[in-house]
Design goal:
This is tRNA (guanine-N(7)-)-methyltransferase. The chain contains 9 helices and 8 strands. By secondary structure, it is of the alpha/beta class. The longest helix has 14 residues. The structure holds S-adenosylmethionine. The site of S-adenosylmethionine (SAM) has 22 residues, from strand 3, helix 6 and helix 9.
């Protein structure tokens, strides 16, 4: 395993595991390419709030498994990881409706995390925690196999240019990695507003043998699937009259 060095703290290039080598397979994994750890400025208020509450509610990508029970201060609750939570609009809207579930929002973009952190503190939402880092590395390095009840990826960057398709987060290898981290019966939920990305994902729905695809809607899905609000990027897509496509898989 590569070490999760500290370069990503300073806005440098984040650590990138060679998953094919680590897992000894020929599956496809996303390349972050030259995307650096996304910085961005916080307002003075956000900075103060971040400094005060991040040590309790957030952590940085690390090479150690998350002690979920200690972090949430309760044990035996289901845990869902959302990758690319952006500003956390739907994360904060869904969490109170699934108060029994531990929600971990993973994002590269610090101002997005700061916004969610602010909402979590203001609204006293006690079942959300945050990790700053590349979601694929976070899942690989910080969650052991069969430890999660759900993984959500809402409106991932579509990387529309053909030469950038290799950066898309949904690939055969990530489906395999996500499946390995889900418990039996766990759910992977992906949504996109991008027609070409939807075609790409549709081609992959049966790519991972341990994930059973459930066409939308799946009324018996054991988890909340309604985002409650239109997220920032969902709204941008709807403004352009894009169709929203939802994907649900069950770990078997
Ligand atoms: C198009 S936005 C969608 C944000 C949010 N889910 C929404 O619907 O408004 C994609 C988000 O994923 C984040 N992101 C992209 N690649 C990521 C990765 N590998 N790990 C974690 N977050 C990532 C970006 O910083 C961005 O905030």
């Amino acid at each position: 395993m590569n070490s999760a060095d500290s370069s990503h703290n300073s806005g440098g290039r984040p650590p990138q595991t060679d998953f094919r080598e680590v897992f000894g397979n020929e599956l496809d994994y996303p390349r972050l390419g030259n995307v650096t750890f996304r910085r961005g400025t916080l307002t003075d208020n956000q900075e103060a709030l971040f400094n005060e509450h991040w040590p309790r509610l957030g952590m940085q990508l690390a090479d150690a498994p998350v002690d979920i029970d200690t972090w949430f201060g309760r044990s035996g609750h289901p845990t869902i990881v959302e990758i690319g939570s952006g500003t956390g609009t739907s994360t904060a809207a869904m969490a109170p409706l699934e108060a029994d579930t531990n929600i971990i929002a993973v994002e590269l973009y610090k101002p997005g995390l700061a916004k969610l952190l602010g909402q979590v503190v203001r609204e006293d939402i006690d079942n959300i925690r945050m990790i700053r880092g590349d979601g694929v590395e976070v899942i690989y390095r910080m969650f052991p196999p069969e430890s999660l009840d759900g993984i959500r990826v809402f409106f991932p960057d579509p990387w529309p240019k053909a030469r950038h398709h290799k950066r898309r987060i949904i690939q055969s290898g990530t489906l395999n990695l996500f499946a390995s981290r889900l418990k039996k019966g766990g759910v992977l939920h992906v949504a996109t507003d991008h027609a070409d990305y939807a075609e790409w994902i549709t081609e992959l729905v049966d790519a991972e043998p341990s994930l059973r695809f459930h066409p939308w809607p799946w009324p018996e899905c054991p988890q909340l699937t309604d985002r409650q609000v239109i997220t920032k990027f969902e709204g941008k897509g709807l403004d352009k009259e894009h169709t929203i496509t939802e994907y649900l898989w069950e770990k078997i």
